[in-house]
C-alpha cells in the first residue's frame, strides 16, 4: 500500500469521525415530520400526568363558576306554618289560620354573591392560564426531545455507514498484509481505526436509546404506538 493510499484512508476516516455531528445535523431535516411531531405533542398533552393535573384543576374551577352562578337562591329561605281552623288556642290565640308562608332574606349573602362569582371566574381564568403555560412548556420540550432523537438517529446511520467502509478497508489491508503488500503498522492502524469507529457507533446507539426514552417519558407510551 503506497503513501497516497494510506493518506487517503486516514483522511477519509478523519473526515467521517471529526465531522460526524455536522453531517448528521445537515442531513436530519428530511427526516423531521411536523405532522408526526404534532401527534407527539397532542399525545403528551393528553397523557403526561402534570398535564392531566392542570386539566382537572381547570375543570374544577369551571364547575365552581357554574355552581356560584346557580347559588343565587341560597340567601333566600322559605318556611310555612299550617294553623288548622278547628283548633282554638286560648293561650296564644292566632287570628290567622290555614297556611302561613314566610320568606327570610340574608342581605349580607346577596351583597356578597357578585364578589363570589367574580372570584370564581378569576380562579377559572388563572387555572386556564396555568394550563396554557403548561401546554406551551410541554410543546417546547417535546419538540426539543424529538429533534434530539432525530439527530441521534442520523448519527447512528452515519456511523453505521462509516463502519461498513472501515470494515471493508480493514479487510482489504488485512489481505494485503497477509500477502506482504502492507506493513504491520498499517494493519495495526486499520485495526485501531475499526475499533474506534465501532466504539463510537455503540456510543451513538446508546445516545439514540437515551433520546428515545426521554421522548417517551413525556408521551407515557412507546414511540411506536403513536401513529
Describe this structure in words.
By secondary structure, this protein is mainly alpha-helical. The chain has a domain at about 5-60 and about 130-225. Helices cover about 75% and strands about 5% of the residues. It has 6 helices and 2 strands, in the order ααααββαα. It has helices at about 5-20, 20-25, 35-45, 50-70, 105-180, 185-220; strands at about 75-85, 100-105. A two-stranded antiparallel ribbon has the order 1-2. Helix 1 runs antiparallel to helix 5 (about 105-180).
Which strand order spans the largest sheet, edge to edge or round the barrel? 1-2
Unreliable runs, pLDDT <50, ≥5 residues?
A: 18-25
Question: Helicity level, as a percent range?
Answer: over 70%
Radius of gyration using CA atoms only: 38 Å
Tell me about the largest β-sheet.
2 strands, antiparallel
Total count of helical runs of at least 4 residues: 6
Strand content: 5-15%
Structural class: mainly alpha
- How far the N terminus sits from the C terminus, by CA atoms, comes to 52 Å
Average pLDDT, to the nearest integer?
A: 82
Number of strands: 2
- Helix and strand element order: HHHHEEHH
